[in-house]
Amino acid sequence: MIRVSVMYPNSEQASFDLDYYQNTHMPLVQKLVGDAVKEVAIDSGIAGGMPGTDAPFVAIGHMLFDSIQSFQASFTPHAQEILADIPNYTNTQPQVQISQVV
């Protein structure tokens, strides 16, 4: 099992529409990639690790897939449409990490 994490960096200039991300963007991604995605979760950053610090990411989206191949096969045909939706909810440049779930 792998986890695809899409992390949206926090900054003074960052804007992020969590409602749109949760209710429009992630359902769009789920619809397009279909049954390949096994689970979706969203983290909304509230604080950093030290008292009084901001969260390093305003939000993080997580998606579970059986394998990298499954992710790539389901995501790649729809990448342009999915990526084109990003400006509808944020002005940040997301960072992506693919991890093995152990």
Care to describe what's here?
This protein is of the alpha+beta class and 102 residues long. The protein has one domain: Alpha-Beta Plaits. It is 29% helix and 30% strand. It is built from three helices and four strands; from the N terminus they run E-H-E-E-H-H-E. The protein has helices at 18-33, 68-75, 79-84, and strands at residues 2-9, 37-44, 57-65, 95-100. The model has no long low-confidence stretch (mean pLDDT 97).
Sum up the structure in keywords.
102 residues, alpha+beta, Alpha-Beta Plaits, globular
Topology:
Elements: E1 2-9, H1 18-33, E2 37-44, E3 57-65, H2 68-75, H3 79-84, E4 95-100
Antiparallel strand pairs: 1-3, 1-4, 2-3
Brief characterization of the structure:
The chain has about 100 residues and is an alpha+beta fold.
Q: What about the largest sheet?
A: 4 strands, antiparallel
Task: Give the beta-strand count.
Answer: 4
- The gyration radius over C-alpha positions equals 14 Å
Helix run count: 3
User: How many distinct domains?
Assistant: 1
Instruction: Give the terminus-to-terminus CA distance.
Output: 8 Å
Q: Write down the oligomeric state.
A: single chain
Q: How much of the polypeptide forms β-strand, as a percent range?
A: 25-35%
CATH topology: Alpha-Beta Plaits
CATH class: Alpha Beta
CATH architectural type:
2-Layer Sandwich
Uncertain residue ranges? none
Helix/strand order, N-terminal first: EHEEHHE
The strand order across the widest sheet is 2-3-1-4
**Helix share bin:** 25-40%
Mean pLDDT: 97
